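REQUEST FORM: STRUCTURE PREDICTION
Request ID: SP-0412
Submitted by: Lab K.M.
Chain count: 1
Length (residues): 556
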Amino acid sequence: MHSTSPRTGRLPSRLEAIALSACLAGAGGCRVGPDYAPPKADVPDAWLDFKAGAASRPDEDARWWTRFGDPTLDALVERAIAQNLTLRQAGLRVLQARALRGIAVGQFFPQTQAATAQASTNRVSENSPQGLLDRSFGDYSVGLEAAWELDFWGRFRRGIESTEAALEASVADFDGGLVLLAADVASTYVLLRSLQEQLAFIRANVELQQDTLELTRVRFNAGAVSELDVSTAQATLSNTRSFVPQLEDALRQAETSMCVLLGRTPSDLAAELGDPRPVPAAPPEIAVGVPADLLRRRPDVRRAERTAAAFSAQIGVAAADLYPSLAVAGSTGFRTTTFQSPGQSPSAGDLLDADSFQGFVGLDVHWPILNYGRIRNHVRFADARFEEAAVAYQDAVLQAAAEVEAGLSSFLRGRERAAFLEESVAAAQRAAELSLIQYRRGAADFLRVNQAQVDLVERQNSLVIARASVAQGAIATYRALGGGWEVRVGREFVPPRTIEGMRARTDWGDILSPGYERGADFSLFPRPGGEGPVDTEAVPATSPARTQETRNAPRD
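STATUS: Completed
RESULT:
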């Protein structure tokens, strides 16, 4: 289309005018289908159990795991973010979405652009009508072809709008995976430490009960007590010992889960975990902000909103088929046919002569006037799919608010329960000491001693579980608030080594550049309605304005 004539040295005026009108049509043409407005989502004004947190800012806890004050946990989370394979897959899906957006952008420009060439030697049958003339000839051509469907109705711009939203949805999906990964690492770490602490309590109680068993044997041999005391002490000791392999197995399972989160084969984590430690203490307060913060902070909510935006644009893509499409097609080049007598070699020496120049330009109008039923039902399908996505967005907001409430309740009630259990454990320890002293003096029977020691084991385990529950409640709250994804800002979505391997294998252009957002061509296609966070007071998804632009379309 942009080749110049060898005679004039410039683009023919008709082609120039058509190209100019095509650009104007693409830049200023209308867009059928609805302009997207975020669906309205209802959120409460304040949290049920944490109204005081309304003035706090949750983005202050972007690295919320550091609030536990445990350097080992911090290191494990950072390592998981760098190495986790599931998160890496999500990052690669972002790169795929970038490439798909590039395909959509390419559709806006001439869809067919090809350089052509042909060389053939032909011999016509003597018995054919052409056989009366020269029967042997060579045919040679070289040229350029282009076809451009003009975007009068916004089909291609709506496609770009859709893939743009899909790209943002893939980024939100990556952010959601990062949030979930950080929470899973923290939750598994709390489980590991709680199992270690339970093992420490069990082993201490095993030593205590062994001493008690020896005492009952001494007193039995002295005739001070019956064999019942010895048997009871032995049964209690063996039962307590049975918890050790059970906890060790649970500890191994937790270590294996942590290895998967860290992107490594199952192995011993002793070097990473260091010496056994108590369950990390949950932060005394959690900055929960107001419920409306979920709309901009929760990655899954943002993903649901962007998915709705992508489906909204697809309505316009489908509605464009209701209108005639206009395409400009053209070709230019050189062609020559040479005739030769038998035995002569074909020659293309005059292929590039001025007299061999040829070309054409034309307009192609396509209007499927007998397919309105199919097209309209395609539009209806796209509209229903958008409506489903809008409801899914509202459901995601509802689920997010419910998860925060559940996490807060678990955190606050668990903290109350742990405080009571600390008092209970202290009392149980004192009861076990006093009962053993009285037993030695003969002032109490062994049943009281045994019961006190059994109660101590149970209450110590309950206390560890309660402390872990407080930490897990805090982790669940942070995860429900959607915090943690902010750490990827300034980073690429896949590790540098992966980028190096992909660049060595394929030309990725600027798609793998650290500063890539929507591509260098984004300024050519501004998003309708501008950008910014989701507006909770936006026009509802069921607004009649959504289908206003398609009402004047031809009917079936």
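NOTES: Residues 37-52+65-110+154-323+373-531 form a domain with the Outer membrane efflux proteins (OEP) fold (CATH 1.20.1600.10).
Reviewed by: T.R.
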